[in-house]
Amino acid sequence: MYYVKVQTNHTMQERPETLLTRADYVEDIKIRWQIHQYEWNKLCEDLNKAYEYLLPFFKKYRDYAVTAYQKEFGTN
Questions:
Q1: Is residue 63 included in any domain, yes or no?
Q2: Is the pTM of this model over 0.70?
Q3: Cα–Cα distance measured from residue 35 to residue 54, given in angstroms and rounded to the nearest whole number
Q4: Is 74 within the bounds of a domain?
Q5: Is the dihedral of CA 20, 23, 26, 28 positive or negative?
Q6: Contact criterion met (CB below 8 Å) for 30 and 36
Q7: In a domain, 58, yes or no
Q8: Rounded to whole angstroms, how far apart are CA atoms 48 and 55?
């Protein structure tokens, strides 16, 4: 079995320079929120379409199950 020893010699002597300002972060958050809202709305649209597509099948299966149960057990 082989072992690899990883050495890290990362000692910071001073604080690194900031590349982005607070305003940049705020603007980035706003843009990401808009993207999130867009994607969320598209997901809701897709789920509604799937629901509308599948609803007739579920109703058909429900009706079949109720009819079969009533036929088997003679309840109304």
A1: yes
A2: no
A3: 29
A4: yes
A5: negative
A6: no
A7: yes
A8: 10
Helix (H, G, I), strand (E, B) or coil at 49: helix
Which phi and psi (to 5°) does residue 44 adopt? -60, -40
Domain membership of residue 41 (yes or no) is yes
- In angstroms, the CA 33 to CA 45 distance is 18
Q: 27 or 7: whose pLDDT is higher? A: 27
Contact call for residues 76 and 70 (beta carbons, < 8 A): yes
Give residue 49's domain range. 34-76
Looking at the 3D structure of the chain, how many domains does it have? 1
Amino acid at 43: L
- Which pLDDT score is estimated for 45? 98
SS in 3 state form for 28-73?
Answer: HHHHHHHHHHHHHHHHHHHHHHHHHHHHHHHHHHHHHHHHHHHHHH
